[in-house]
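Hi D.,

Good news: the full-assembly prediction came through. Inputs first.
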Amino acid sequence: MDSAPAALLVARGLTYHRNQDPIFGPLDLHVDGGEAVLVRGGNGAGKTTLLKVLAGLLEATGGEARLLGAPVDTDHLARHCAYLGHRLGHKTELGCLDNLRYAATLQGRPASVAALEAALAAVGLAGYEDTPAGRMSAGQNKRLALARLSLHPGQLWLMDEPYANLDLDGIALVDRMVGAHTASGGAAFITTHGAYAAPPGRVRVIELHGNRA
Amino acid sequence: MSPGPIPSSRVGWPSVARAQLRRDLALVWARRGDALQPLLFALMTASLFPLALGAEPGKLAPLAAGVLWVCVLLSGLLGLDALFRSDTEDGGLEQMLLSPAPLALLVGMRVLVHWLTTALPLLLVAPLLASMLQLPMSLLPMLMASLALGTPLLSLIGAVVAALTVGVKRSGILLPLLALPLYVPVLVFGAGSVAAAAEGYDALGALLLLAGALVLALVLAPLAAAAALRIAHT
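Then the structure:
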């Protein structure tokens, strides 16, 4: 190591307005590898919007965000972060394995069938390889998305309500995955409105209340 | 060197393009009932003309190329609205945007699959339809050449319009309304090349214009469609 590790994610005065209405911010963030950040707030507090701005899917109204020193905006998307949104992007007609194989290649790291099956088994979807995503429950689809996340080469995970739709076992799975990810030097941004999120390791909590952070 | 492993994409663009191609073909196969619609539509429409106009040899022949071209053009509009709709609705587009591979490449693959599954089958049955419409055999090569150059052009232009209208929840007639004016030059030169050949003129000029437009569209249309999708997303 030649110097102090650069922050994974830095934001200064990050704000987002929709039609003049402030959604969140100004927000200052400094996230290092090994940290899990819980973004708490009620419905409509701007949690999803914050994650989308951090991913570069939405343009911030003010301030700036940097991922590994590079600016993030709609022209420079955070391609090195794994984004788990409300909409998971699974094709309902295709089986789990096909969905996962495509997603793994798309996010920059193709995986062998054995690795894909292992990732599915790790999220409790062994035996569902050929089941179309459309025939699985919302929780099972969330698990499939978590398998995608586990194959992502990026250091930063942006997870929008990862606990939603999951059973107790699934909630423990998310905590376990986040713990392993941060233990290996990654960071995770997790939005949640509940209190059941308890990933192990260093956890920071950010509260969003409408337009004040 | 900056500290910490900066994750680099371990995959070349060709393999992402292959993955997109493979996934989109699998999707078409899963929705094969829908994928057959354009072919059936063109077959039905083309077969109505001999019934409506009568099967006298002199009557159909001059119209054959134009009728075929219109059938192909209209059938191509059928699946166009669905081209990007599911991706914008199920979150697939967000993953495509965040991929290290450029969106234009992924869009290009999607258009390729659209052409392969809607236009290519029509190209294969075009000789059959041409003989049903009593197109003189000597004009068949010209018709095939104009369709081979024109249909990819239609798919590419259509993709740009589909990307522009994807933000409209139920675009309905909007998409054809926007696409048809852009299709007109392709139709004019495509059907026109066969008509010119029928009159004994040199039709190479029309074909070359189509080829030139195709090269231009191959480069620009995926970029334009990708830009439109980006706008539709935000």
